[in-house]
Design a protein that fits this description.
Spore Coat Polysaccharide Biosynthesis Protein SpsA, Chain A, 6 helices, alpha/beta, 333 residues, 20% helix, UDP N-Acetylglucosamine Acyltransferase, domain 1, nine-stranded mixed β-sheet, six-stranded mixed β-sheet
């Protein structure tokens, strides 16, 4: 099985974080988003992955991935867009169905079930959708047979209104319907909308919110909320074994219930940690500081004495002055 992970965007809504880090490499509980995706795909026997990149391409060279997975990178001199990015790997994707995934999401879903549904319906594409709960998301209208009726526009009455998750399965036949387009080209605007309008059938598969999850890190608030959501689910043992084991393996050890510590961490005896708390590598927490509940500390963070932090995410390398009070905030310096 092959997959394409689209990673060429700038992540402008996450500036200044993305000035120095490509959006797919921003960390959630100490692990870059892209590594979560590669690890999940590995669990479902995906062994060949194609990744496009543009912004800070050299940063991707440090990504960790299972040794049995072949990862192929391309570097776009100009951004090709979602459709252009897929087309750049066309010659490698003509032998079987393949996955396409946006690089700025964190998700867990039954990939095997998705692929089985796609093969059964025999469409050029199966879009993974979920309930529309983001105001500025483009609506995707689905009928009772999981066909995509239209994308964009106003409510279509009897049709279910959803949103696209950035996850899809494509068949090689997909390439026969791609027409030359000015770059950058968008798979929604330049292919799906005209294809559906002309009578083409695109299938959909919905995320099961009771068993699966999907998070998009579009802006600072979503990035903060996403880190704290993962911490909460991890502490409740509701994240799923794939992710729980991966976090324990890659970024921290649970030293007591719901407190995770990375390597080379110093916590003064006079400091207090209130779970759930996740502490990255090389962190220093000085005396009389109170950390938690619901706090994620990135790598190489220093918390000076007398500080109080809760419901917050402190990013890599931040130096928190003495007697600071941080509540419900993301701190990146």
């Amino acid at each position: 099985m092959k997959a394409v992970i689209l990673c060429a965007g700038y992540g402008t809504r996450l500036k200044p974080i993305t000035d120095h880090t490509p959006k797919p490499l921003i960390k959630v509980l100490g692990i870059p988003l892209l590594e979560y995706t590669i690890n999940l795909l590995y669990q479902y026997d995906v062994r060949e992955i194609y990744i496009n990149r543009h912004h800070l391409p050299e940063k991707f060279d440090k990504v960790n991935f299972p040794k049995k997975v072949k990862v192929h990178f391309s570097t776009e001199q100009q951004i090709l867009g979602t459709l252009g990015g897929i087309m750049s790997f066309k010659e490698h994707l003509l032998d079987d169905d393949f996955l396409v995934i946006n690089g700025d999401i964190l998700f867990d879903m039954n990939i095997k079930k998705l692929l089985e549904q796609h093969k059964k319906r025999k469409c050029i594409s199966t879009m993974v959708v979920r309930k529309k709960d983001v105001d500025d998301a483009t609506p995707v209208f689905i009928d009772d047979f999981n066909n995509v009726i239209s994308i964009g526009g106003q409510s279509r009455g009897v049709y279910k209104e959803c949103m696209f998750t950035g996850i899809q399965v494509l068949s090689p036949e997909f390439f026969k319907h791609v027409k030359p387009a000015q770059l950058p080209s968008c798979i929604i605007k330049d292919l799906y909308i005209p294809y559906i309008s002309s009578g083409g059938i695109v299938n959909s598969c919905a995320v099961d919110d009771n068993k699966e999850f999907w998070l998009e890190f579009g802006d600072h608030k979503k990035y903060l909320d996403g880190n704290l959501w993962v911490l909460k689910k991890l502490s409740e043992y509701k994240l799923g074994n794939i992710y729980e084991d991966f976090i324990d393996l890659r970024s921290g050890e649970q030293v007591v219930e719901n407190i995770w510590l990375g390597d080379k961490v110093y916590v003064d005896w006079g400091a207090t940690l209130i779970p759930p708390v996740f502490v990255g590598h090389g962190v220093t927490i000085e005396k009389e500081s109170i950390i938690g509940p619901n706090v994620v500390l990135g790598d190489d963070v220093t918390i000076k004495e007398g500080s109080a932090i809760r419901d917050s995410f402190i990013m890599d390398g931040a130096n928190i002055p003495a007697n600071s009070k941080i509540i419900n905030r993301m701190q990146h310096q």
